[in-house]
Amino acid sequence: MRALFVVNPQATTTTPRARDVITGALAHVVDLDVAHTEYRGHGIELASEAATKGYELVISLGGDGTVNEVVNGLLATPSGLSRPSFAALPGGSANVFIRALGLSGNPVEAAGTVLEALREGRQRTIGLGRINSEHDDRYFTFCAGFGWDAAVVHEVERLRRNGRRASPALYAAVAVRLFLRGDVRDSSLRVEAPGRAPARDLYLALVTNTTPWTYAGSVPVQPTPNSDFHLGLDGFALTQLHPTMTLRLVLRMLSRRGVPPRGRGYVSWHDQESMTIHSDHPRAFQIDGEYLGHREQVNFHSIPKALRIIG
């Protein structure tokens, strides 16, 4: 089997030695070529060309941003060609998609799981989310967000460009700072989904393709605990932003069961084929932890059985 190993050399939680060990182990099982990403969007380019160059498998090593790029590249495989399978190894600070698949957050251990699956010929198929707007036509693997969470992602990206290292503590600190400054007290969002009355005056809106939405260290954060790769999309939105109620909801997200389908201060949706989020004015928007810009309307679609996964 020919495989392309797409490595993000800037991944925050891997070392050159670990990358060499993983590369050597993979090369014993598959006919492996290695490519390093050099700029934003490079993973899309590499993965989109993989089928044309005869690769049957693409493996990524990096964070959720690297995963998102490679997945979008694979979904751009030219028609008439067989789309390669995908295996993802963790190298970022959160690795939400990989951990949601049940793989270890340790890249060497995750590589061991992938190698075992390759030897045994095991694979599975999962669904993805897709967004389109005036500016976008992209897939996401685990989440998209409008408002507060996207503003946090935007600010963390700015801090990283200035030399800060991404970590769960940094994300939490930025989230609290934006809340206390009142930057997120903007109820301009509206969510529409088939068969439901529109939900209006929302402060934050999330669309998920699996659970958890993210991790706080080793603890899963679950606003949509019934979200699943094999179902449609789930949604969650804040209808209130009172400090006490917000804290109560955060604690529920951190609990083993996550947030119930119904309760005070929020609204949720389950197993939706499509959803649309509107804003009265441009708001921060992110997918898979990557800030895409400010948007006024984004359409979301569930794409079943979109991707073959090894591991």
Describe the structure.
Helix content is 28%, strand content 35%. The protein has 311 residues and is an alpha+beta fold. It has two domains: 2-122, Rossmann fold; 132-304, Tumour Suppressor Smad4. The strands form three sheets. Strands 5, 6, 7, 8, 9, 10, 13, 14, 15 and 16 form a ten-stranded antiparallel beta sheet that branches.
Q: Which percent bin holds the helix content?
A: 25-40%
Q: What's the β-strand tally?
A: 16
Largest sheet: 10 strands, antiparallel
Structural class: alpha+beta
Mean pLDDT over the full residue set: 95
Q: Number of helical segments?
A: 8
Distance between the termini: 16 Å
Domain DAGKc: 1-135
GO molecular function, one term: ATP-dependent diacylglycerol kinase activity
Family: Belongs to the diacylglycerol/lipid kinase family.
Organism: Halostreptopolyspora alba
Question: Could you give the topology of this structure?
Answer:
Elements (H helix, E strand, L loop, with lengths): L1 E6 L8 H12 L3 E6 L5 H7 L8 E6 L1 H11 L10 E6 L5 H5 L6 H14 L3 E9 L4 E4 L2 E5 H14 L6 H14 L7 E4 L6 E4 L1 E5 L5 E3 L2 E3 L11 E6 L4 H11 L12 E7 L1 E14 L2 E20 L2
Parallel strand pairs: 1-2, 1-3, 3-4
Antiparallel strand pairs: 5-6, 5-16, 7-10, 7-15, 8-9, 8-15, 10-13, 11-12, 13-14, 15-16
Helix pairs in contact: 1-5, 2-3, 6-7
